[in-house]
Amino acid sequence: MTTVTDASTVHGSRITWAIVDTWVVARRHLLHLVRRPDELLGTLMIPVMAVAMFGFVFGEAFGVAMDVPGAEYREFLLPGLFALTMAFGIGNTTISVAEDVRGGVLDRMRSLPMSPVAVLAGRALADMILAVVELGILLALGTLFGWQAHLGLGGVVAALGLLVLLRLAFSWVGILLGLLVSGPEAAMKYFALVFPLAMVADTIVPTDLMPGWLSIPAAWNPLSSTVIATRELFGNGVVPATTWVGEHAMTMAVAWPVAIIAVCLPLAMVRLRRLGR
């Protein structure tokens, strides 16, 4: 009985220290961001410019194509831009992890008596905290541009939860890529691959307006599920979903990120153990 109790105590202690170590690593990344706010500014510039370009410059044209007024198109657009911001965060994560690998930071962390999972989970936690800040800024900008949520605080909280979950999944994608690439320069080149992922989705225009051969991968894009689900939760569903994925967007908006994390997290841990070999 004592042995079982001791084992349980040791296990609980390990979990506690893993949580503490994760916060220490996350805090390091957040302090680094405070010293270099241009990274946050660079991430936010893309969706802000997209609001201006697609919402006001091309908004009326897209609205005509969708048979909705320009103001309604902007309501359709904003949830897509929230998800785009979560996707574009992959670039910063990949570059940051690649810099830590090259600078020997991860090797030094691995030499310390800390949880191996915390070395990478701290980065993911920092990304989630940053995602909350980014979404807060974008919600304020969206309100200034005339966007609003129609289904109350509960819908807003649920939608933000799905967006942060998506960012967590993309964070582990970025962590894995950062461990695999040869350096920060290569990571910057891989960032270009995010644009097809971001645009071939239900973000800027509905998949129904895309060519038939393109609408199928766009509908199954993990971004599309989150975008459609958040539109429903915000009450911005201007265009009804017509695909199977769209009709089950809530379920898929959870299933996709969980599946991505289930694949990328263990692969990242395996890659971390092999660094320097």
Automatic annotation (TrEMBL):
Residue ranges of the TM segments: 40-64, 76-98, 119-147, 153-180, 187-205, 254-272
UniProt keywords, alphabetically: Antibiotic resistance, Cell membrane, Membrane, Transmembrane, Transmembrane helix, Transport
UniProt domain ABC transmembrane type-2: residue ranges: 38-275
Protein's membrane topology: Multi-pass membrane protein
InterPro entries, per the entry: ABC2_TM (IPR013525), ABC2_TM_bact-type (IPR047817), ABC_2_transport (IPR000412), Nod_factor_ABC_transporter (IPR051784)
Compartments reported by the entry: Cell membrane; Membrane
Primary residence: membrane
A Pfam family of this chain: ABC2_membrane
PANTHER family cross-referenced by the UniProt entry: NODULATION PROTEIN J (PTHR43229)
Family stated for the protein in its record: Belongs to the ABC-2 integral membrane protein family.
Entry protein name: Transport permease protein
Protein source organism: Nocardioides luteus
